[in-house]
């Protein structure tokens, strides 16, 4: 959507949109005080949207295993301190 968070909620409240699944925000993690968290027609996912093929998923998993075997931290590991 090309409009800000408040515009998204307003479009849902007015009935212009029936629902929204939001995955990426300009500032992440999304502020815990954001009204989007509690909106009944909004689902927020943890910045995990993807259109990767099975081959891409398999390659990613193999890369993560290799990073762990080398004692490295996987590049896209969930960071509880950051909230995503």
Automatic annotation (TrEMBL):
User: What's in the keyword line of the UniProt record?
Assistant: NAD, Oxidoreductase
The D-isomer specific 2-hydroxyacid dehydrogenase NAD-binding domain sits at: 10-49
Q: Which domain of life is it from?
A: Bacteria
Q: Does the keyword Signal apply?
A: no
Do you know which Pfam families this protein is assigned to? 2-Hacid_dh_C
**What is the name listed in the Swiss-Prot or TrEMBL entry for this protein?**
D-isomer specific 2-hydroxyacid dehydrogenase NAD-binding domain-containing protein
Species:
Gluconacetobacter sacchari DSM 12717
């Amino acid at each position: 959507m090309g409009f800000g968070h408040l515009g998204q909620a307003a479009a849902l409240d007015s009935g212009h949109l029936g629902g929204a699944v939001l995955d990426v925000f300009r500032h992440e993690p999304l502020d815990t005080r954001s009204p989007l968290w509690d909106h009944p027609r909004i689902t927020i996912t943890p910045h995990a949207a993807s259109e990767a093929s099975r081959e891409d998923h398999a390659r990613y998993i193999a890369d993560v295993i290799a990073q762990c075997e080398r004692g490295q931290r996987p590049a896209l590991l969930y960071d509880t301190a950051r909230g995503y």
